[in-house]
């Protein structure tokens, strides 16, 4: 395919995904409603389309900032749809909470469902997809030597804090502030690293080929349009999912935990996979790891802020037993992920472990069952730590 044809296809793709947001905006401003499932699909597709536009624009924006900082910013911008959904849920939770009764409401349970589901989806589906697809294409391990040191350090700290949340049975205000501060430190450290030319592809490449002024105008325009669609569609999408659950007797918790993050994060995962299919799997996996840092720090911290703002007073975010276990399981998933990527040479077995464990736990929704999977994740992580230490000992002897 010639460059002109390739560029034409890229612009058509951009226009097509931009059009996905039109029905959502039309429905909201026109006061239109159909069946809850159809509503959820339309609003969900609007969010998916906007998420793709954001990801492509953010990739093109890497031309104007340093590489490591660009990856951190890309990871932040690419999950803006997830932030929008979480903001709606956290606001509803604050409206439902009474300090007098201190009862954890269903609206508060949905907040925990979304944030824990998003984090587990990113590791179990996103990381594993990049690793396995790279191996299928190259039949070799993914060598990430001398990379990801900052991301792994920050993710390790965030994982430790997530374990702490389980034992505290709440996301305390101080913990929330510390998580937000941790992410700001991560951004600052990322901005001090050396820059390098990013490898763009598809629509982001077409945008990047434009002059600096035109490129920046396109990027800003895509950000503005996508943010508008997401803000307009997010609340209706969440409420449509809840109505769907009520009508069909499906757990609202599970719909919010998996369907909402799948819609908001699938573009980021798909783009990371496309990086893996091409020549830059390191950028794909590093972006997803950076997004995980983002979600375990800034996303968790900001949900407490929005919850407090909605409630009208500074509050910690209380958790019931089910929510606490969801955070514990998420911490265990993150722990295993860190241990698997720590050696920097990542083989197909690592991807398979993450994928199989993720898929295996999905049908088991009871709290006791989730605890068993938590023990399983921690046990596998402990075995791997022991194996890595033993291998290191043998190499020195």
How does this structure look, described?
Helix 6 (106-138) packs antiparallel against helix 12 and helix 13 packs parallel to helix 15. With 397 residues, the protein is mainly α. It has one domain (3-388): NCX, central ion-binding region (A middle domain of Talin 1, Up-down Bundle). The protein has helices at 3-19, 22-30, 36-61, 67-78, 80-96, 106-138, 149-168, 173-191, 202-208, 212-248, 252-277, 281-311, 321-341, 348-361, 367-396; strands at residues 142-143, 170-171, 317-318, 345-346. The longest helix is centred in the middle third of the chain and has 37 residues, at 212-248. The strands form 2 sheets. A two-stranded antiparallel ribbon has the order 1-4. The termini are far apart.
Total DSSP E strands: 4
Q: What count of domains describes the coordinates?
A: 1
CATH class: Mainly Alpha
What CATH architecture would you give?
A: Up-down Bundle
Structural class: mainly alpha
Number of helices: 15
Apparent shape: globular
* Poorly predicted segments: none
Which fold name is given in CATH as the topology?
A middle domain of Talin 1
Rounded to an integer in angstroms, the radius of gyration calculated over CA atoms is: 21 Å
For the largest beta-sheet, the strand count, sense and barrel status come to: 2 strands, antiparallel
Give the DSSP E fraction (strand runs of 2 or more residues). under 5%
Report the order of strands and helices: HHHHHHEHEHHHHHEHEHH
